[in-house]
Specification:
Helix content: 10-25%
Number of domains: 3
Oligomer: single chain
CATH topology of the largest domain: TIM Barrel
Radius of gyration: 28 Å
CATH class of the largest domain: Alpha Beta
Distance between the termini: 45 Å
Bound molecules: alpha-L-arabinofuranose
Number of helices: 13
Shape: globular
Number of strands: 38
CATH architecture of the largest domain: Alpha-Beta Barrel
Structural class: alpha+beta
């Protein structure tokens, strides 16, 4: 949302060594030399609900606006008013107020919102469906989904709550029909009649109905809807209240209320090691009151009110705290939980932002302590018992807890961080805590004391050149920063946001800013990836941001993965692909590499070994990562102190630096594997020659 830490970066940036004008020869020590353990959790995921990444994205719920919780708004500026404010809202009277967005009437039914017949305290607004006395045929409601619905021959689980509006209604209702249908042609893909005993249907409280639909075949596209219908002959002249209409396809690892399977599998494919959640700005809230509150997003969906998200749309919070923890469990990755730290954005963008006063901070610290107990406490504890009552008796383990988000915008973090840190560390001594402001990123130069054993989360949305210029940034960071060896770095958000241009990164949505990650973006980020990999004592964790983008509605570009309701539309970006290569071929130990000819720029490199695979130092797989930022190929010679018999490789390349993957051409730039001819191996097996193509990211695997 905001420009980043450039100030501090300048302090420690180092220029790289002289240009490699001739060849490049690297001496790689496998049998000798000092190795370092690679960072075990280096590549991970950062998720927040932005770009409809959660609602309308990874959260598998297919019904849009299922409980009329709140509307989208557009936040913008006006020429004569300082800051940002709401310039348009779906609900014309109440910004963030309920709407019927996503819903349509079938037949002559009339739809409206009702606030006098709440489904629950959390879900006070319901839909009223009036069926005129002269109605005939099929009447009911239809939901358009999140810009469509993907229909496959698989089981869909539907549910909804309904209550007749009149104490005395015709009571002749014998069945309600649920169906999946084409929006374009009306063709029914699957339908089920739910038997209803009209006379016994309560008029005092809501009745929940469930239904299972199994289409016989896949729909040709995702222009499909979900309908709940009546036969007018049974209900003409009656009205009904309806709420929490839900429809789920099979989910990732079959979790109820879980993740969209295909998207979760795309995430799992890069073999991430952790998940940072729930934000980002979306943790902080546009105000203190609308921050992400864990106690309001756990338990039954009827008890989750949702909240106005930070990214212009209402969040249902169906993907809540427990669902995030279960996501980690199912993907076998570490949760990296960000807790609210008493600092919110200010919707008007007028300083000062919303900071909880020091004397009022204790409830927020208690909230964080209880949040950790909900995840990690035994069932003997108050909050652990609540977790068990929500279906997860076994405790989770959380290794990493981040305190706040981007608090380098605040001038109060220097006192807020220690308050949270000391309280949380006292109860959870084995947790690594992550600060979101370091001295070098402080706007006021006020020191945030980060105790040894903990981390700083730094964010970088930059140009390719920035990442090249800062290749050496981490090499001496611990000394240069003054934090010393005990403090490490989490690069919690980073991406190449714009092309190189005078003046640096282009935050506007003009031509400079990338709509999608390009080849040159991948090269810039991957160079930074090498900088991280070769400093495992400094950089422990990293994650690209933002993670997901619904092509139909988004607030930020570029993004890691883009998608629509149609599972065939998913696009893995160039950024996704280089990180997949680096994550797969990280190795367990770094290898010493010396350049005996040539230097960094335009080629960058790093080497590591999977030593644990064989248990012997010299016999593992050696990974040599090479990046060529130049458009012309470069001759590379690798000299090793062990014999090599085969050289396989994976390459990500494209001759157009501004090319990107897009729908219908989603794998235009994707990793290709190759095997080098044995003629490239010389000097008795100890030398490998390779012509590194222009604009390429390569991992050579030597065995
Ligand atoms: O990734 C998008 C936003 O960028 C995050 O919410 C915020 O932390 C950063 O400013």
């Amino acid at each position: 949302m905001v420009p980043l830490v450039a100030l501090g970066v300048l302090l420690f940036s180092c220029t790289t060594t002289a240009q490699n004008t001739t060849g490049l020869t690297l001496e790689i020590s496998v049998a000798s030399g000092t190795r370092n353990k690679t960072a075990p959790y280096l590549h991970g995921l950062f998720f927040e609900d932005i770009n409809h990444s959660g609602d309308g994205g990874l959260y598998a719920e297919l019904i849009r606006n299922r409980a009329f919780q709140g509307s989208d708004v557009t936040i913008g500026g006006s020429s004569n008013i300082k800051g940002s404010h709401i310039v348009a809202s779906e609900n014309p009277l109440v910004p963030w107020g309920p709407t019927l967005t996503g819903w349509r009437a079938i037949g002559s039914a009339r739809l409206s919102l009702d606030v006098l017949n709440p489904l629950s305290t959390a879900l006070p607004t319901v839909m009223r469906v009036d069926i005129p006395v002269d109605a005939t045929g099929e009447v009911g409601i239809l939901n358009e989904g999140w810009w469509g619905m993907d229909i496959q021959p698989q089981e869909y689980t539907a549910s909804f709550y309904i209550k007749p509006a009149q104490a005395v209604y015709s009571k002749s209702l014998t069945h309600i029909t649920t169906s999946l249908r084409s929006n374009a042609t009306g063709e029914i893909w699957a339908a089920e009649e739910i038997r209803v005993d009209g006379p016994t249907l309560s008029t005092l409280e809501y009745t929940q109905f469930r239904s299972t639909l199994f289409p016989a075949k896949a729909a040709p596209d995702s222009d499909n809807t979900f309908a709940v219908t009546f036969n007018a002959s049974e209900v003409a002249g009656n009205s009904f209240f309806v709420s929490l209409v839900s429809l789920f396809p099979p989910t990732y690892k079959d979790r109820p209320n879980g993740l969209r399977k295909d998207l979760a599998e795309v995430l799992a494919e890069i073999r991430p090691k952790f998940l940072r959640f729930p934000g980002g700005n979306n943790l902080e809230g546009l105000t203190i009151q609308t921050r992400w509150q864990w106690k309001k997003n756990i338990g039954p969906l009827t008890e989750r009110p949702g909240r106005p998200g930070d990214w212009s749309y209402y969040n249902t919070d169906g993907l809540g705290y427990l669902e995030f923890l279960e996501w980690c469990e199912d993907m076998e990755i570490e949760p990296l939980l960000s807790v609210y730290a008493g600092y919110s954005l200010d919707i008007t963008n007028i300083s000062p932002a919303n900071t909880v006063p020091q004397e009022s901070m204790q409830p927020y610290i208690t909230e964080a302590l209880e949040q950790l107990e909900y995840a990690m406490g035994s069932t003997e504890t108050k909050w652990g018992a609540l977790r068990a009552s929500h279906g997860h008796p076994s405790p989770f383990q959380i290794r990493f807890v981040e305190i706040g988000n981007e608090d380098f915008f605040s001038s109060s973090y220097y006192w807020r961080f220690p308050l949270f840190y000391s309280a949380l560390k006292a109860v959870y001594p084995n947790v690594t805590f992550i600060a979101t402001q370091a001295t070098e990123s402080s706007p006021s130069g006020i020191n945030t004391a980060i105790p040894a054993g903990n981390m700083w989360d730094m964010h970088h949305y930059e140009t390719p050149q920035f990442f090249k210029d800062n290749f050496n940034y981490f090499d001496n960071w611990q000394n240069a920063s003054g934090y010393g060896d005990g403090v490490q770095i989490f690069v919690g958000e980073y991406s190449v946001l714009s092309r190189d241009r005078p003046g640096g990164v282009d935050w506007s949505n003009g031509v400079g800013r990338f709509a999608y990650p390009t080849m040159v973006a991948a090269i810039g980020e991957a160079i930074y990836g090498l900088a991280m990999e070769r400093n495992p004592h400094v950089v422990q964790l990293s994650s690209y941001a933002p993670l997901l983008q619904n092509f139909n509605a988004y607030q930020w570009t570029p993004n890691f993965i883009a998608f629509t309701a149609d599972t065939k539309d998913t696009v893995r970006s160039t950024s996704y692909y280089w990180q997949k290569m680096f994550s797969w071929y990280k190795g367990t130990e770094t290898l010493p590499v010396r350049n005996s000819e040539g230097g960094f720029d335009p080629v960058w490199w790093h080497a590591a070994i999977d030593a644990e695979e064989t248990g012997t130092l010299a016999a593992g797989r050696v990974y040599v990562k090479l990046i060529n930022a130049d458009t012309t190929p470069h001759a590379i010679t690798l000299n090793l102190d062990v014999k090599v018999s085969t050289v396989n490789g994976t390459i990500l390349t494209n001759e157009d630096e501004y090319a990107f993957n897009y729908r219908n051409n989603a794998t235009a730039i994707s990793p290709k594997t190759f095997t080098l001819d044995e003629s490239v191996i010389g000097n008795g097996g100890k030398q490998v020659t390779y012509e590194l193509p222009g604009l390429a990211i390569v991992v050579l695997e030597l065995k």
